[in-house]
Amino acid sequence: MIKVGIVGATGYGGRELLRLLLAHPGVEIVALASTSAGGQRVDAVLPAFRKLIDLKFEAFDPGALAKQCEAVFVGVPGKESMKPVAQLRAAGARVLDIGPDFRLKDTRAFSAYYQVEHTSAEHLPGAVYGLPPWYRNALRDAQLVAVPGCYPISVILPLRPLLDAPLSEIPAVADSISGISGAGRGLKEDFHFPEMNENLKAYKVGAHQHIPEIEQELQHRMQVQFTPHVAPLTRGILSTITVRMREDFDPAPYYACYENEPFVRVLGENQLAEVKHVRGSNFCDFGWVIDKRTKNLVIVSAIDNLMGGTAGMAVQCLNIMFGLEEGAGLDWGGMAP
Amino acid sequence: MIKVGIVGATGYGGRELLRLLLAHPGVEIVALASTSAGGQRVDAVLPAFRKLIDLKFEAFDPGALAKQCEAVFVGVPGKESMKPVAQLRAAGARVLDIGPDFRLKDTRAFSAYYQVEHTSAEHLPGAVYGLPPWYRNALRDAQLVAVPGCYPISVILPLRPLLDAPLSEIPAVADSISGISGAGRGLKEDFHFPEMNENLKAYKVGAHQHIPEIEQELQHRMQVQFTPHVAPLTRGILSTITVRMREDFDPAPYYACYENEPFVRVLGENQLAEVKHVRGSNFCDFGWVIDKRTKNLVIVSAIDNLMGGTAGMAVQCLNIMFGLEEGAGLDWGGMAP
Amino acid sequence: MIKVGIVGATGYGGRELLRLLLAHPGVEIVALASTSAGGQRVDAVLPAFRKLIDLKFEAFDPGALAKQCEAVFVGVPGKESMKPVAQLRAAGARVLDIGPDFRLKDTRAFSAYYQVEHTSAEHLPGAVYGLPPWYRNALRDAQLVAVPGCYPISVILPLRPLLDAPLSEIPAVADSISGISGAGRGLKEDFHFPEMNENLKAYKVGAHQHIPEIEQELQHRMQVQFTPHVAPLTRGILSTITVRMREDFDPAPYYACYENEPFVRVLGENQLAEVKHVRGSNFCDFGWVIDKRTKNLVIVSAIDNLMGGTAGMAVQCLNIMFGLEEGAGLDWGGMAP
Amino acid sequence: MIKVGIVGATGYGGRELLRLLLAHPGVEIVALASTSAGGQRVDAVLPAFRKLIDLKFEAFDPGALAKQCEAVFVGVPGKESMKPVAQLRAAGARVLDIGPDFRLKDTRAFSAYYQVEHTSAEHLPGAVYGLPPWYRNALRDAQLVAVPGCYPISVILPLRPLLDAPLSEIPAVADSISGISGAGRGLKEDFHFPEMNENLKAYKVGAHQHIPEIEQELQHRMQVQFTPHVAPLTRGILSTITVRMREDFDPAPYYACYENEPFVRVLGENQLAEVKHVRGSNFCDFGWVIDKRTKNLVIVSAIDNLMGGTAGMAVQCLNIMFGLEEGAGLDWGGMAP
Questions:
Q1: Cα distances (angstroms) measured from residue C54 to each of A128, A234, D20, D106, D205
Q2: Which of C50, C333, C337 sits opposite B49 (nearest CB)?
């Protein structure tokens, strides 16, 4: 049993990690740290876990965590993991950060999109971007994993294999729609139930912090016009990606790279992904349509933002890091309905 | 009081017409025809209208309707209004068709996208496309109005003023998200509550019948990559339209044409429309972002698909046709929450 | 045109009043007061009303309001209307308070359930409980109207006619389910979208402040076990009321009193009300089932909590107070879908 | 690995079983039978399971299933399992039926509530009602398990321990609210998304087929006025149960029986269950309020109707039948959000 800890398990990403890890056959949760809930029983703060866990939230103590745990997940809000991750690394812990702080290699991009200086930039070169299909080997020995963002997963997985395809140079258009859990548990008028129910909106057009992450993982060979939207559902991201073809081509061979991926399902031409088939699962599904009239290729991908988009992928990274079966604790089909 | 009739008032568009017309200060509903509900009391079929209407659904009789009514609304399913509209016109009625049959001037496009021959093509030249900002004069004397489709309204209103702007020739990308009422009341597994709740999907990519309608009203000067989506809400359409600029320009002056439009609200730069502000109203709201990094202009528009997107616009057309105050019966703000 | 003002128009009840009054044929809104939004344009704070209103929110000035307005609606949070209502009354204004402060005649009950002393108790005797079917005459000359609470409307309307029916003395059980707009616009973790979507919960069992209001209007002749619930929808209340019969009887004759009520629809035996038929309307629908096996009568009622449950009923009271047609501005059927 | 089969895996209960069993560490699915989908790949019919299962649906062959499988789950619609279950039993299979056909011992009650004669009544005496806390011993050797209905689970678990408590003899009032997945996947206008979204309704008042099931498991010592409701969510049941006390008493000691139950969580006094804490889990949570004013005890319970209310409980029964760890494959906390 791999002994793990979670720092920041009361946020939505952290709770999902807790849910997955509690049922994982090869993992034992030995410590949970929380600033807001320190000293309280986990199941008092998170009643969904009553009768499943008998721990208390502790104050954050990097040395103790490093001693107790073989791996530590960090699930604190963006821009707040730089410091604790550095402390955990200094104490010798292997760390999986589900936040954005260690994803961008370029600190100027980080500052530009996150409006803050990176205070632990020395850990960036060693951080492995935790997208298993593209970084599986590096993950085996990773000491610090930057688990990808939810939107980027849904955009990078379909686009990266096409970097050598005959595409136009104009930016891809990625219009993504997300469930509200992606916005986290912080209260905000926009996400008060009566304000968001029966509503649709776009936000941060051309300015979302996932843009540099997507373009980095497309090796800066493709620009992306990324427009995130929210719709009245809790979990799920659907990304519709329109790319312009220089000439007719068949995308299928480019996607052969995913054939043996346990959690990428290439649906094929004229097959469109839906959120319901991936909800509660670690899968990313995608398919496409070639529009001969417009000469565009339109790809539609779907993930569960909390599972395949955050916590599930973090567990998949853990499995790789510790030589467990890659799908251990993750072998769940989509929860439809 | 203008005496009106409705043919096909049990569908969602027809019900919404009934709701609006019952409260309209200048209109009296004198007849309702329905194939499925002939002979039944309106409020037995549609309990939402109990204590408001004391009529029965009648069998469709074009001559009687033309005699009783100064205007007849037709709300039957697509491809099924060709015949009754022609009969009503032959009997002398002024007709407002909320379906698609008389919107496309090009019968080949109609056949290609609707998979059926147009059997009343002789009425197409005289049919007025019922989009008041662009056809107000023609509407005054119109004998047959083809009320626009919901998606097209949300795309045409923001794009048409830009036809002379310095835009690239590549197709605009219009990713629209609709509430499920847009799919009508016909039962379908896709829209069974547990299948659609908490789901997101795209459909008819590059093949939706609103494509030729949009491009016709953009005077075939702009191609549109239109991808419709559905999200788990009942009413509302949000359209995100990405167009490529040939050079930097300010869209605001192009939109001055809408300044006095009663139901178009131009929000301006960096202001994004939301469904909640238009729900239950006849408004179309839109704003935009100029992304200097990508050289794209991203416009976001919102309507209530049943009101501003169908029945409300039909009533606005009626008001124009009969010289009533244009906003009569339509002066409702958005229903937030 | 009756000149009216609204104090506190940014809350959900106040917004709905604004929506209704802007479209009301016999009313002109001349002033809006708001503490939080003073000095700002109404349509900047409430974008749903752009192009419909050209006023600014003012600071609360009872004298000015009394001078400008023939009637003033007050829509501030519960326990906060005592003072401004008293000031408006002192300045001579006729007032309609949509909050709870003037509903309970018994100040001890008020203190017990609202945990605060009533500071304007001298206005309680003159306040008219604004439930038109039962207080229509008193409303004509009312200077202060306490518009009923949403839950109470859905429970009192079906129960009050049964006070003389052969019912058992044990308390009625009223299990009500409400949409979340009933909780107001104040942010609360419980009503953060991801917490409330796909959730169901009961709250304030045996302790809700609407209990004394219901029992007062049942003339303290019936006790009610009232359990409110919330479900993931925005608008609507469904109340299921189980009463025990002393002997078999037919409730229909007891409900004959509502035959000419414009906004009460008695559906009859084995007909159950649904929220969708009253959404966006001022109606209260109810029907019932007699369970011979258990000797219970089960009544199910439905309202739109913001319209028939608050703002619509307030407008109906206004219409009565000023001799307008009682249904003016309210003649809307249910918004299904 | 226990070899199991599923008959009728395309319905919502069957799909959930498939989801749970695919991830169960001690179970292997060896056969799936379906009338509607015979011959098709499972993952073609249920795309949520792509990359997880490599089987085809077969025609129903009781002999083959009995030979291949140590246990067969049956998930066909109500009234349709009588025959296949009898055939499976005749062929020697141990059967877990998630439908209602073998729950009621009294065939007259079955006929009265299901409007059909029971054609396999000879199997009723041996059928074990699959509610582990009350039938754990009988389950160990059960050859036929009738998995309880979803509503009954939420009502029986809180009420059965109170049979010896000082309660009044008047019927308990159980007002339950269910998500729509409980209605199954059959299309019905009531559950078309735009009809049910933003709607609330009660149905089958005093006539629901779960009434005799509840009362049987309360040993006919308590009558229940059961009113089921539906609300716009997919999964979950919340039951509010009002019982009248003969005298004051503390329910807590009566619930001590559940202390070691793995999937019953007794929250205690003034703690109310919510669906979000049990969604995606096998738990039944409940708590209560004693209302001294009315002398009623109000209990609120919550389950996930598809997991704790159907498929999860079926797996728990399987675990007991085959001596596996009782929580194997079920150790999931609630999925909030």
A1: 56, 37, 59, 70, 50
A2: C333
